[in-house]
Amino acid sequence: MNAQPKEQHVTQSTTRSTPIVRIRGIEQHFGPVHALGPVDLTIERGEFVSIVGPSGCGKSTLLEIIGALQDPVRGSVEVDGTPLDGPRRRTAIVFQESATLPWRTVVDNVAFALEVRGVGRKERREHARELVEMVGLGGFENHYPAQLSGGMRQRVAMARAMSTDPDLILADEPFGALDEQTRMLMAEELLRVVESIGCGVLFITHSIQEAVLLSDRVLVMGRRPGTFIDEVPIELPRPRAHASLSEPSATASQERIWAQIRSEAEVAMVGTRSTR
Ligand SMILES: Nc1ncnc2c1ncn2[C@@H]1O[C@H](COP(=O)(O)OP(=O)(O)OP(=O)(O)O)[C@@H](O)[C@H]1O
């Protein structure tokens, strides 16, 4: 299958408001390398969309374009109904190794984005404390990043991302550096937090399980230049937890996604061997 995903309004029929993200015909090239596209994508408000696909297919490139960290060579990006012309205050971006500031305590790391925006000290610390509590770090407010585990530091990054009242979270392999158990716990935590604030999420992961557990829709990207080759609606009831993955529909979704990725990765590997 090599079609762009249909303009689906399947899982998001509950809202008729402007989508939080609408991109059309996005393409990216780096010199002679055609890295991405063309791709179309719509994310509704409050919708959780994951992208999975073989290494190097253009996932991070797409996320960075939506986050205004790079400009595409072709196509249009609208966020919240407005053409994107630079970084937005209400778009939060979380990376695999989101940096924490080592000389600041947990609460001051979380308050940092508010400080930059000129929010008063008392107000920003109060809000930061609530967020620290929300991501399960209550009691660690005054610890420094070096005193925390990798998973706890990633929770700090998550709390900081939430501090600016995001309507869109762009997450690029946010749990990729964590061990499997921490990763699953963090995924459950993220679900809880996102459900409580109701923002749209674009989530890139190499873990099919994680994508199925978290998402309303999983988009499968084919090998470079990446385009969407499948769109898998995840119809598991919410709230979800790790156990949801053993439900028959979740297993079927994982198998469908894996079959697509495997065939793309195999073709990519053969291509690499034959061009050596
Ligand atoms: N700044 C750049 N300059 C040149 N090539 C780039 C640049 N950024 C990305 N690329 C190339 O574009 C392609 C897509 O990269 P991208 O990082 O988006 O892939 P990805 O799907 O996120 O990969 P992974 O899953 O391994 O993180 C790759 O071939 C990469 O080498």
From TrEMBL:
Keywords: ATP-binding, Nucleotide-binding, Transport. Pfam families: ABC_tran. Coiled coil: none annotated. The keyword Magnesium does not apply. InterPro entries: AAA+_ATPase, ABC_transporter-like_ATP-bd, ABC_transporter-like_CS, ABC_transporter_ATP-bind, P-loop_NTPase. PROSITE patterns: ABC_TRANSPORTER_1, ABC_TRANSPORTER_2. Residues 21-248 form the ABC transporter domain. One of its GO terms (molecular function) is ATP binding. PANTHER family: ALIPHATIC SULFONATES IMPORT ATP-BINDING PROTEIN SSUB (PTHR42788:SF13), TAURINE IMPORT ATP-BINDING PROTEIN-RELATED (PTHR42788). This is ABC transporter ATP-binding protein. It comes from Streptomyces edwardsiae. The lineage of its organism: Bacteria, Bacillati, Actinomycetota, Actinomycetes, Kitasatosporales.
